[in-house]
Recover the amino acids of this structure.
């Protein structure tokens, strides 16, 4: 049984963006994407989502933690 | 051949002191990046701070076991994830029924019904997802899947580094990553799309 081409493209999405597809799969995805707005939009969305997750989920180190870590180093040096 | 005299000893001690200093400085320079990953592996800022401190305490004690020239950030994260598991986050082995898993287009489809098909092409459509919803969705992923998503998608570690950090085969990293990302999108789709 063969998958619907868009279902197949959905399966390839993560590896496509991770660049872990084989050459054959890569060509398969690219040729489908070039003619399918439905899938192309969903790929574009996934790319934006990944970037967005990375930036919004990133929280800087709280002030003071660096001093505590540096302190650990001194404590250890005297041990 | 003469016995190693005080001179050689002194040189050895000086070399070791220098190596150690360099190790500590390199490790401290990565603290912010280590914290960013830690913060998403655990539930609260306090826990993340504690975990990072424990990690550095252990790293400073066992700095000799680090091989210079290898990935120090991955080495630190390996200590950190081990400590995190030791802290009582037991790996779930109950034969829990797996959640019904949606495909990779699930969130995009929901977004398209809320904002229109063309909106998917815009850069700011993702901003309909609040920061809180992202953070909550991440913490809602089952831990062993979340670890991989956090390491790869937030920490920007390679599959190989993630495999080494978590001490699992690379194929396991890939399958957990794929499933973890789908779980993330499912949580987001079921949460708030404004």
């Amino acid at each position: 049984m063969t998958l619907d081409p868009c279902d197949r493209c959905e399966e390839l999405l993560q590896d496509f963006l991770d660049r872990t597809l084989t050459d054959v799969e890569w060509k398969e995805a690219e040729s489908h994407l070039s003619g399918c707005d439905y899938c192309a939009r969903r790929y574009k969305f996934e790319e934006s989502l990944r970037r967005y997750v990375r930036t919004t989920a990133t929280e800087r180190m709280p002030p003071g933690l660096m001093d505590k870590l540096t302190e650990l180093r001194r404590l250890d040096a005297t041990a | 051949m003469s016995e190693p005299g005080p001179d050689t000893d002194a040189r050895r001690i000086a070399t070791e002191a220098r190596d150690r200093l360099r190790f500590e400085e390199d490790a401290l320079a990565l603290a912010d990046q280590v914290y960013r990953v830690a913060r998403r592996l655990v539930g609260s800022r306090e826990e993340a701070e504690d975990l990072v401190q424990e990690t550095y305490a252990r790293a400073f004690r066992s700095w000799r076991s680090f091989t210079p020239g290898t990935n120090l950030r991955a080495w630190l994260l390996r200590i950190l994830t081990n400590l995190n598991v030791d802290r009582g986050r037991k790996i779930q082995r109950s034969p829990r029924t797996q959640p019904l898993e949606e495909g990779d287009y699930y969130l995009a489809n929901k977004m398209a019904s809320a904002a229109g098909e063309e909106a998917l092409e815009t850069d700011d459509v993702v901003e309909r997802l609040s920061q809180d919803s992202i953070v909550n969705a991440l913490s809602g992923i089952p831990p062993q899947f979340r670890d991989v998503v956090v390491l790869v998608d937030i920490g920007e570690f390679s599959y190989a580094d993630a495999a080494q950090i978590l001490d699992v085969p690379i194929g396991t990293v890939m399958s957990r990553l794929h499933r973890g990302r789908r779980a993330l999108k499912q949580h987001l789709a079921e949460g708030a799309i404004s």
Notes: Chain B touches chain A through 47 residues (CB under 8 Å). Residues 91-95 of chain B have pLDDT under 50 and may be disordered. The CA atoms of residues 161 and 187 of chain B lie 27 Å apart. The radius of gyration of chain B is 22 Å.
